[in-house]
Hints:
Elements: H1 13-34, H2 40-45, H3 52-63, H4 66-79, H5 82-87, H6 90-108, H7 113-120, H8 123-156, H9 162-190
Amino acid sequence: MDTSPHAGVSFHWLDGLIIFAYLMALAGIGYYHSRKQKDLKDFFLAGKSMKWIPVGVSLMAALNSGMDYLMQPSGVLKFGIVLIVVNFSWFILYPYVFYITLPLFRRLDVFSAYEYLERRFDVRVRSLTAGIFMLWRLSWMATALYVPCLAITTATGHPDWLYPTIVLLGTLVTFYVMMGGITAVIWTDVT
């Protein structure tokens, strides 16, 4: 009996073609939306013209990375149902954000929590919270990129492709975000 970590791995050329087509679609979405931008408001805020359904789907996708899809089943097996119960906190959190936080931001005409904190306190509070958030998000993004790339290279039977896969996917995501702005991010999250 074969007990190697790659026993039973069957990654066919069609699997690779599907992944390649998906990645090219992501790049195409970024390029397509780059041609529709006129100013920074379009880049950062999608011209305030996005409908709520794609924005909501994008938010849900952003809160559930590939890392979550790989971790949740094994986490539930190891720690029990407590991990699923955590997801139910969304039913409390989302109405709070929808009915309290967003109307407050609209009324004050602010675009981020950091802008609100600067108005409420001062620029030092804004800078501190933005710095903490950036450090947290950078570490999260590194893990969120590493884990799915590890799954892909394991599925292909080529663990030595891990670092090139990370660089390739990181470059692709950077490309479509830089080209298409938040509109491209929202539509790639929806796909």
